[in-house]
């Protein structure tokens, strides 16, 4: 668990530094809200005050605070364009090629992997052959490759390109790697999963590094910020060094920064050994979970990709030999486009979202790329009592799903490739800062197109309750239920329900928005 505690310490340090740099401004309204499972205790008062203001004004866009803030945004965006102008196309293109060469050199001369020995003959064979659905390990395909995609994406993003302008570089990096980086056949799944989820995760890392960076700082604080941002986003860290920005000092905050909340969960994870037994015999492991909530979902702003997102990763200890096998799940969503509305006490955000799901349970393994529509709402029920709800329905163009006890027809892979649909709902009743009651349900409908023929219905339910102990520290309990129904063409149908419980301490850390940051 040392790796996870290192990441936790890094996030805690950067959140503290971010909070230190905050100053308040009377002319601009900044609102943060945790809108999924755990609304942020420190932000609920701001949310309520903000929406009382909106209710009193028939047209929120005419509120002086929004007018002043928009003028500041325009000025700061001009400053950002001057200080971080978009580089010529050849610069990110060269970096994409350099990343692939670096991976190729490591795989061949350090790891000495069989697939790394490439030459003109292997390139010719790959170019003249039809791609395949590969047999890589599940964690490599659904965790490792998306991270590789972030590196391609951020070659352009750190050179001043927008999200949509950076996406083609992730596609190009993946394609060139598939055809020239290995002597195995190019794989369809990598050419889809690497760039699309790589762009999503890459934008998340770009925005997190922007919240860490502050060119107004000097000395020890500046060093910590630059190192932390470089760890979060290595490509950006390197480009800042090459561009001379690492040691640049300015009087203005030049980087995008939205409100960022970090919630840390630590406790015990109990795994029931008997199927279909809600509270059966089992064993307990230590667990650690990190949740990032970024952006202002209920403030009327012009939406940009991933200016609002949630990212959560859960880990547990055990006898596992690899980091990937200790990951319980990694989930997240980010807005691609959206619109805000206000209906009395009901605040709404509707939009198009991208979803990422990785689940490693005793019942199944699931990795899914999704796109769909979502609705976020906040209903003010009383004095400091709010109901937060979000619901989603989306398509899954590509997913991987474990085969459980039935062998895969490939003979090497223990999972199938699928397309399908997904539905998600998260609802939380926040009783002031004292307690929360939450209900979360995800459902995936998957149809296999490569592997054992059939389809699979997966349901994940996770009710949760927390009680405040002291300020931002709470005690929580969460119950997990994993239900699968595999309907297979050549094998008996398989139904299974597995349950788990988690009891934990929850620490909420809110990093307010820095003065001067644009949106």
UniProtKB/TrEMBL annotation:
Domain DUF3943: 131-235
UniProt protein name: DUF3943 domain-containing protein
Signal peptide as annotated in the record: 1-19
Swiss-Prot/TrEMBL keywords: Signal
InterPro entries, per database record: DUF3943
């Amino acid at each position: 668990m040392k790796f996870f505690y290192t990441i936790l310490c890094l996030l805690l340090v950067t959140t503290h530094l971010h909070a230190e740099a905050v100053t308040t401004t009377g002319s601009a309204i900044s609102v943060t809200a945790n809108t999924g499972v755990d609304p942020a205790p420190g932000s609920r008062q701001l949310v309520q005050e903000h929406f009382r203001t909106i209710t009193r004004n028939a047209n929120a866009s005419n509120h002086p605070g929004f007018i002043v803030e928009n003028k500041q945004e325009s000025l700061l965006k001009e400053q950002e364009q001057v200080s971080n102008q978009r580089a010529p196309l050849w610069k990110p293109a060269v970096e994409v090629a350099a990343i692939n060469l670096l991976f190729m050199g490591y795989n061949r001369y350090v790891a000495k992997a069989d697939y790394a020995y490439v030459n003109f003959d292997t390139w010719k064979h790959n170019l003249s052959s039809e791609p395949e659905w590969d047999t890589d390990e599940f964690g490599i395909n659904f965790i490792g490759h998306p991270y590789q995609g972030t590196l391609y994406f951020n070659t352009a993003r750190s050179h001043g390109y927008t999200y949509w302008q950076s996406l083609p570089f992730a596609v190009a990096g993946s394609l060139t790697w598939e055809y020239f980086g290995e002597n195995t056949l190019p794989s369809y799944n990598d050419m889809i999963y690497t760039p699309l989820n790589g762009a999503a995760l890459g934008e998340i890392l770009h925005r997190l590094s922007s919240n860490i960076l502050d060119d107004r700082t000097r000395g020890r604080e500046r060093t910590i910020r630059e190192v932390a941002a470089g760890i979060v986003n290595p490509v950006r860290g390197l480009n800042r060094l090459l561009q001379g920005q690492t040691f640049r000092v300015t009087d203005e905050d030049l980087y995008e920064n939205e409100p960022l909340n970090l919630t840390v969960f630590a406790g015990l994870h109990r795994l029931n050994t008997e199927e279909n037994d809600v509270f059966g015999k089992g064993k307990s492991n230590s667990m650690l979970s990190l949740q990032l909530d970024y952006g202002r979902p209920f403030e009327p702003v012009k939406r940009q990709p991933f200016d609002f997102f949630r990212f959560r990763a859960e880990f547990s200890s055990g006898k596992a030999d690899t980091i990937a096998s200790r990951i319980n799940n990694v989930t997240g969503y980010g807005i691609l486009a959206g619109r805000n509305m206000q209906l009395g006490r009901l605040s709404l955000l509707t939009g198009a979202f991208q979803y990422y799901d990785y689940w490693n349970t005793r019942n199944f393994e699931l990795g899914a790329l999704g796109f769909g529509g979502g609705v976020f709402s906040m209903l003010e029920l009383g004095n400091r009592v709010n109901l937060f709800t979000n619901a989603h329905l989306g398509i899954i163009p590509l997913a991987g799903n474990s085969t459980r006890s039935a062998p895969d027809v490939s003979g090497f892979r223990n999972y199938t490739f699928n397309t399908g649909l997904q539905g998600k709902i998260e609802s939380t009743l926040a009783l002031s800062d004292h307690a929360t009651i939450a209900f979360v349900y995800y459902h995936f409908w998957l149809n296999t197109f490569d592997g054992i023929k059939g389809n699979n219905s997966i349901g994940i339910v996770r009710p949760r309750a927390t009680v405040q102990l002291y300020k931002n520290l709470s005690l929580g309990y969460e119950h997990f239920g994993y239900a699968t129904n595999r309907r297979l063409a050549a094998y008996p149908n398989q139904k299974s329900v597995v349950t788990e419980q988690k009891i934990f301490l929850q620490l909420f850390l809110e990093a307010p928005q820095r003065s001067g940051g644009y949106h």
